TrEMBL record:
InterPro entries: MetI-like, MetI-like_sf. This is ABC transporter permease subunit. Keywords: Cell membrane, Membrane, Transmembrane, Transmembrane helix, Transport. It is found in: Cell membrane. PANTHER family: ABC TRANSPORTER PERMEASE PROTEIN HI_0355-RELATED, ALKANE SULFONATE ABC TRANSPORTER-RELATED, MEMBRANE SUBUNIT. Residues 77-265 form the ABC transmembrane type-1 domain. The chain crosses the membrane at residues 26-47, 88-108, 115-138, 144-166, 243-264. It is a multi-pass membrane protein. The lineage of its organism: Bacteria, Bacillati, Actinomycetota, Actinomycetes, Micrococcales.
Amino acid sequence: MSAAPVVETSRAGQAGTLGLLLAKTLGSWAMILGIITVLWIGLLWAFDVSDFVGKGPVDVFEYLFREEGSAEARAEIWSLSMVTVRDAAVGFVAGMAAAVALAVFIVLSRVMEAAIMPLAMIVRSVPLVALAPIIILAVGRGTAVVAVMGGIVVLFPALVTIVFGLRSVTPQIRDVVTVYGGGTWDVLLKVAFPSALPAFFSAVRISVPGAFTGALLAQWLATGEGIGSAVVSAVSRSQNTRVWALVVVITLVSLLIYMVAQLVENLVLRHYDMAQKA
């Protein structure tokens, strides 16, 4: 029996699975957009917000696509959004890397847990606005401040989630690895990390919005770049439609990246489950 039909069937199945997951992700994205739009219009109506301050979807659409300077506005907002995405990526990577490293220390040593967790909770509980002057004095106003401020927002929820995942290894599996001559690092690398994949991806999904929050705060308080700075500038000039457009665009971008992270999670976990069944 030729293996070619089997390979083609497997590839077709994988393509079908990818298409199904993509369709579900797009469907979720469309549903969330619909809910946000309904809430947006409903809250403006419920609180009777002045037309001068509160702008609806139609106002934002006209600002971005129908007015004389719409092309320039779109180009500028897109450029600002990419700066914010870059800063969010810096904060996300810094926070997730720190979370994984600290989670390993915590899982390996109860002493390290007693030292790290209270400090992490203290840093997380202090408002970032209050910490900003100290961080700026310590690291300046460049990429380092973006990494630190974004990393602080990302760190704590990711740390707690990853630690929970790494500790999900049952004593029986740990004993099996030990019986076959494995040590603590073998349990961690060969058992704990694979079993923590769902927790890790949950931490990723939780951290994506946090990374954007950290980036916007860093841009507002420190760097003077991107959407965070542009919103403050537009508010000070009473450019209310521009404010809403900036917020809408960065919200859509962050939501899209969140959905991409969710799609990657579904693909990786599905592949891992198939590998285990095989």
